[in-house]
Specification:
Layout: H1 2-27, H2 29-38, H3 44-49, E1 53-54, E2 58-59, E3 65-71, H4 73-78, E4 88-93, E5 99-108, E6 114-115, E7 118-119, E8 121-123, E9 134-139
Antiparallel strand pairs: 1-3, 2-3, 3-4, 4-5, 5-9, 6-7, 8-9
């Protein structure tokens, strides 16, 4: 009986936590601002015209993915954080080759960094990206992330549909 009650309590906590993470994706003002400022990137050709280039799809060690990043090297080098000009735009690949906009990533080597009150995560060097130490903030503005609107990986995104991005 106690085990059943404990299991019920844990299930309730998980449901509340998951619900809060999903609600955070749509209720957070920064997510809405990012969505409005970067809607043009729904068409990947716009990102490419603005100097963004694809890098390999990034999967997490414990599952999930960040999708394919299209990175703008000049923005990456300038260290400025501009809401409407993220350093990377993230797309989820589908089996048919379609890329769907799912989020953006802001990156700087200067920190500690923040955007509208949201602190960036710090990554040391060496790292899998070949960059020096940097600060980053993912914003899942178009695809819900049950891990949170600013988590690195999204458990509902996969790289399975493509091994490398089309160039």
């Amino acid at each position: 009986m106690k085990m059943l009650r404990w299991t019920s309590v844990l299930a309730s906590l998980l449901a509340v936590t998951t619900g809060q993470a999903l609600a955070a994706n749509s209720a957070n003002p920064l997510v809405e601002e990012v969505r409005n400022a970067n809607a043009r990137f729904k068409d990947v050709s716009v990102a490419m015209a603005e100097g963004y280039k694809p890098i390999a799809c990034a999967s997490g060690v414990e599952g999930g993915s960040m999708g394919i990043h299209y990175v703008n090297e000049s923005m990456l080098k300038d260290d400025a954080i501009d809401l409407a000009h993220p350093e990377a735009v993230m797309y989820e690949p589908s089996a048919g080759g379609k890329l769907t906009l799912i989020g953006v990533e802001y990156i700087t080597s200067k920190g500690p960094a923040e955007l509208n009150g949201h602190l960036f995560s710090f990554h040391t060097a060496p790292n899998r990206y070949g960059l020096g130490p940097f600060y980053e903030l993912h914003v899942w503005a178009w695809k819900k992330n049950r891990s949170g609107a600013f988590a690195d990986m999204n458990p509902d995104v996969s790289c399975d549909a493509v091994a490398t991005p089309a160039k």
